[in-house]
Structures are given as C-alpha cells and as structure tokens.
Amino acid sequence: MSEVKKVIGAEIGKVGIRRSRTSGVGKSRKAHTAAGKEIAVDKSSSAATQESGNFVSKPHEGNGKSRKGSTSKSDGELSNSAYAKKLKKLHIELVKLQLWVQHKGLKVIVVFEGRDGAGKGGTIKALTERVSPRIFRVVALPSPTEREKSQMYVQRYVKHFPAAGEIVIFDRSWYNRAGVERVMEFCTPDQAKRFLDGVPLVERNMIDSGIILLKYWLEVSPEEQERRLRDRIDDGRKVWKLSPMDVKSFDRWDDYTRARDDMFKATDTSWAPWYVARSESKKRVRLNIIQHLLDHIPYETVPTAKVHLPKRKIGRYKAIDYPFRMVPEKF
User: Domain segments of the chain: what residues?
Assistant: First the structure.
C-alpha cells in the first residue's frame, strides 16, 4: 500500500502542476443542466468552469459568496451542531418515508453518480444511517465477472431492483458504461453509444412497472476533488479508497466531462431526469439531497399505536456462575 500511495501522490502532483498552467480562453461556454437546458457559464469566474463547465461556481444561496474549490473552511460555514440538528430532522422524515414505503408497497431506486471524490459514499451513509438496511438497501457492485460480461449489460443490475416495500440505492450504477467504462476503454465506442441510445427505454419500462427512479449527479470542482484525493493518501481511514485506477482516471478530467455531457444529453428525460447537486461542501450536499429525495417521493405519516413497555419480572431465574471470556475494557 505504501508504494501505491507514493505513486498516487507523485501522479496527482504532476497532474496538479499541469492543471495550474492551463487557462481558458473566451468569455463564456455552454453547459447542459440536468433539466436538459443550456446555460452560459462565465469562464472567468473560476478555474473549475474554465476547464470543465461544471456547476460549482454559482454563489451559495444565503451568503452571496462564491463557492470555488472548497476547502474544509467551506464545511465550517455550517457548524457541526447546526449540521447535526438539521440532519436529525431529516432522519426523522426518512423513517416516516420508510414506514410509508412499507405500508404502500412502493418500489424506489436512487442512483448516485459522479466523479471520484464527489461525496457519493458520504451522502449515502448520511441517507441510510438511521433507517433499516432491509428497507434501504445499498448496492455497490464490483467489477463484472467473466460470466457477467457475457450477459446483457444491465442484467447484473436488474437482479438488485426493489420488490414492494423497498428502496434500493445504487452507489454507481448501469451508468458505469457511460462514464468509467467509456473513458477507461473498458467498452467500445459503439457499445457506449448503444447504451446511451437504449437506456432511456429501459428506464421508461422501469417507471411503467411502478418504480420511482431518482438519479443524482454530484458535481465537484477539480480543485476540491484534488484536495480530497490528496487527503486520502495519508489518512489511514481512507487508504482503501485509493488504487492505481484512481490515478489514471484523475488525469482524464476532460474525458469524463465529455462523457458526462453526452450522458446528460442522451438520458436526461422527462420520465427519468438527472438532478445535479453541488458537492463542494460535504455537509450541505448531504442535507440538500436528502431533502430533495423527501420532496420527490410523496409520503404520509403512517398511523401507529403508541407503544407501552409492559412491566417485567426479574429474579425468577438465577444466572449460573460461568467463566465468561470478557472483552478487556481498555477505553
């Protein structure tokens, strides 16, 4: 692992130097929003928009400050106590949603996509930490096996689709073909094109079968992505997220931007639209996505009887004197 960390650190440094020497030309460029519309992006507003046409340079609502390549200070704009308070309220609503989904037998799929370091994992963790893992199922598939490679492309994802009363969250999804597989040449250009042509029809059938489908793209600036990836190099809690593939992907920012734009143009439909969330601030993007999800899945409070714990009698049985192997209390 130490050798991998050295290689990753060196390669990230090289790419960072090359990026710092790159500058945009011209006043504005076109970028597609998740609603399929085009917006003019001021290229002088930030290095992020100069290079990628991403959506992170918009002033943050409420304070009027530009949210360029965010650092830990941007998270500080929302204190830990304020974040915890807001998150607790959302968690209560998520439990209500869970009970409603069970009560009505709803079927929900939530797709999370975005570049490495965009905050997908942290958002999913915040979304699921207070609900039942049997109702909110997280699916994060590894690389396909040789058998799966011989199947219809979406086949290995379909078997994880929800039954009645379930919410399935895909931490990356069938859209791997439009992103990493295309960029890293794990599929042919023709395969990528046929996927983009066909997936809207697949998603139409999903909707027609009664599935509620929400698709989220987490957008991060190159500066913030680099900061987060560098942070993983020496953090013992995050080293498992690093691999040589991360380095190769890191140096293909523009290729991923092109793939993202093509994906939006082909698959941002009226029946299965993409929703883009700015993820410069990890705390804010988690709150924003959870609130958005709650707003887009109609639910009501399920009537339940008030629970009363019965009186219990203790002492009718005497525990045996057994030499239990106790866990040392070191903390």
Answer: 2-296
pLDDT along the chain (331 residues), means of 10: 52 49 37 36 36 49 39 62 97 98 98 95 97 98 95 96 98 97 96 98 98 98 93 87 80 96 98 98 97 98 93 92 96 96
Write down the pLDDT at residue 71. 38
Are 10 and 250 spatial neighbours (Cβ–Cβ below 8 Å)?
no
CA distances from 54 to 111, 176, 224, 259, 292 (A): 19, 19, 12, 13, 20
Where do the H-state alpha helices sit in 105-212? 120-128, 146-149, 155-158, 180-183, 189-208
pTM strictly above 0.90: no
Residue of 95, 94, 101, 100 lying closest to 167 (CA atoms): 101
Q: Name the strands in the sheet holding 166-171, side by side, starting at the edge strand that comes first in the sequence.
A: 136-139, 166-171, 107-114, 211-219, 274-278
Query: What are the residues whose beta carbons fall under 8 Å from the beta carbon of 27, sequence distance 6 or more?
Result: 42, 43, 44
Distance CA 152, CA 292 (A): 32
Tokens standing for 280? 């410069």
CATH homologous superfamily of domain 2-296?
P-loop containing nucleotide triphosphate hydrolases (3.40.50.300)
- 8 Å CB contact between 98 and 108: no
